[in-house]
Design a protein that fits this description.
CATH topology of the domain at 231-332 and 398-491: Immunoglobulin-like
Largest sheet: 6 strands, mixed
CATH superfamily of the domain at 231-332 and 398-491: C2 domain
Distance between the termini: 57 Å
Strand order of the largest sheet: 4-5-1-10-8-9
Radius of gyration: 32 Å
Shape: elongated
Length: 584
């Protein structure tokens, strides 16, 4: 999503889709001067919103989503005498709007809505592939002042103007047929958004009362033929139940689990999130939003992959004999200092020259060789990579839980062709629900004994760094998996095939029948050669490996009762002879 996607004109599978990004926010105005949101949208466009609440760009709304004020009528002119100028009339109208909004929101919080509409985006397979590989829409919150708008919740004074905090929205469920993806963060939920889990930004920003980010399309973005070809598979990380807090034994430590065992985690740790990576696409890290620790944490987080873009053999191997492992992180240490250090790095990078790039605005004149400099959007891409790196290694430095899911049922159902959805049906082929126990895991890379990271820790900080008692508390993670169409068989079979024949030891007739078939094939390829003792040359061995030499090779295993004969050869030529034997 970091580049514009040039769709192929007139592509037969493409659909033109209207996309709408909606930001609804309520801020503590005393914490900001001119707060803005900055992002790069799905079409590659770079956007910075006007300051929150700016007339014309932000619409005042109520907590239930309705407009806070109708279009006001102009104040009546005194004695039929018009205002002295159009500017004066505009000023009077704006004052009337402010007075009306102030009256309606008196005693309540102000909510504002901003919309960014992109029409006629052509969704081709190439466009869908970009979303499959990187579906995260990242919004950075910035402000024109560093005073009162801090990078972390303790009001540190070394805050970044452009990187107060960030939120992320996974738009990949649109590939699976969803029409809306939305997520909510803050300390309170407006009435209309109470159906959404209330998340907390990974980097706390107490100035955000409520923030909802929503991406909406008017129709499914993939055509039916593309859905069948790309075959989306959607994972829904629903909830984790019976989540433990910290455990203490000594009475002096009871203060740390009062009033709940999770209060210490609220104080010292980031909010609870789950994450996983598919081995087939390791560069894409799926991470839910963070929610404050509790006995049950509900994310209802959906993410979609395009199964056709995975190697078919490796996908079947993963589903049949592998497992999808999901990490539950409820005790990751807060990123106070790490994020502040990153903010310093990002802020200092803005304006630095880009290696090998020249400023296009010089237009080849006297300063035509001027080096282009990094703007904030260039640095945003660096920030996204740094943020991802923090979470890729989260299990290295923090204890966590691990749940493993075996998805072999998708293979079983795909093999039963009669279970496939009828042609033209919009119903997904498979919708499965899974629940797995969460097992505690220690830090993969604990710091060395006596290191600075551990030596000055308080008793509370040591407690939250202990693995959670997930098994004792019967902690369980629930997910759903939806597959749009049955998985295709591998039509590109290998050049070779194998046959295994098991027969009684004294079944001489069958043994002679098989031996005759082998000799028939091999004698045609190596006429006159003593087959029982012939050694292949290096060139012949290479030809065998490349499937250019039609030979049957093998071995047998014998015991007192049975023979087990293994045969290997070219699938479409040599091996057809023993496969056609009536004696087997």
């Amino acid at each position: 999503m970091s580049e514009s996607h040039a769709a192929l004109p007139g592509h037969p599978e493409a659909k033109k889709v209207k996309w709408t990004l909606t930001i609804e926010v309520s801020l503590n105005e005393s914490e900001f001067v001119n707060p803005v949101f900055r992002y790069r949208f799905i079409d590659g466009s770079k956007k910075v919103t006007p300051p929150v609440g700016a007339a014309g760009a932000w619409v005042a709304i109520t907590a239930d989503g309705a407009l806070a004020t109708p279009v006001p009528t102009a104040p009546p002119a005194a004695s039929g005498k018009p205002p002295s100028s159009a500017r004066q009339q505009q000023t009077q109208t704006a004052a009337a709007v402010d007075a009306h909004v102030g009256a309606m929101t008196e005693g309540t919080h102000k909510y504002f809505r901003h919309e960014h509409v992109v029409g006629d985006v052509e969704v081709t397979e190439a466009f869908a592939t970009k979303l499959h590989e990187n579906p995260i829409l990242t919004l950075f919150l910035g402000d024109q002042s560093t005073v009162g708008a801090t990078a972390v919740g303790d009001h540190a004074t070394i805050a970044g103007r452009n990187y107060i905090t960030f939120v992320e929205l996974d738009v990949s469920p649109l590939l699976g047929g969803d029409l809306v993806v939305e997520q909510q963060w803050g300390s309170e939920a407006p009435a209309k958004d109470r159906h959404l889990p209330l998340g907390v930004p990974i980097v706390p920003c107490h100035g955000i009362r409520s923030l909802v980010v929503r991406v909406k399309v008017e129709q499914p973005i993939l055509s039916p033929s593309l859905v069948k070809e790309l075959n989306p598979i959607t994972f829904s990380l629903r909830k984790v139940s019976n989540l433990p807090g910290i455990t203490v034994q000594a009475k002096p430590l009871l203060q740390f689990i009062t009033p709940t065992p999770h209060v210490a985690l609220h104080k010292c740790c980031m909010p609870t999130y789950a994450s996983f990576r598919l081995p087939l696409l390791p560069n894409r890290v799926v991470r839910t939003g963070g929610i404050l620790q509790d006995t049950m944490v509900v994310w209802n987080y959906r993410t979609t992959f395009l199964s056709s873009h995975f190697d078919r053999v490796k996908l079947r191997e993963l589903l049949s004999s592998g497992a999808v492992e999901v990490e539950v992180h409820d005790r990751d240490v807060k990123l106070y200092q790490k994020y502040i250090d990153l903010v310093k790095k990002w802020e200092s990078t803005i304006g630095k020259p880009i290696e090998g790039a020249h400023d296009p605005h010089t237009n080849g004149h006297a300063h035509g060789n001027a080096v282009a400099k990094m703007d904030v959007f260039h640095v945003d891409e660096i920030a996204k990579q740094d943020i991802q790196a923090l979470f890729v290694g989260a299990g290295d430095g923090n204890p966590h839980g691990l749940a493993s899911f075996r998805l072999y049922e998708l293979i079983t159902m795909s093999s039963a062709q009669h279970l496939q959805s009828p042609s033209g049906s919009n119903k997904p082929f498979a919708q499965l629900a899974f629940t797995a126990d969460v097992v505690q895991r220690k830090r993969r890379k604990p710091p060395k004994e006596g290191s600075d990271e551990e030596i000055n820790l308080s008793q509370l900080e040591k407690l939250v760094r202990q693995p959670g008692a997930y098994l004792n508390c019967l902690t369980a993670l629930s997910i759903d998996v939806t597959l749009q169409h049955a998985l295709k068989d591998d039509k590109t079979h290998g050049a070779f095939s194998r046959m295994v024949v098991v027969m009684p030891y004294n079944d001489v007739a069958t043994l002679q029948c098989i031996s005759k078939a082998i000799e028939t094939v091999n004698s045609q390829t190596l006429p006159g050669a003593p087959l029982r003792s012939y050694q292949l040359t290096a060139a012949q061995k290479q030809a065998c490996d490349l499937g250019e030499l039609n030979l049957i090779t093998g071995f047998q295993v014998i015991d007192a009762n049975f023979r087990m004969i293994f045969l290997e050869g070219l699938a479409t030529s040599g091996m057809t002879t023993p496969a056609a034997l009536h004696c087997i």
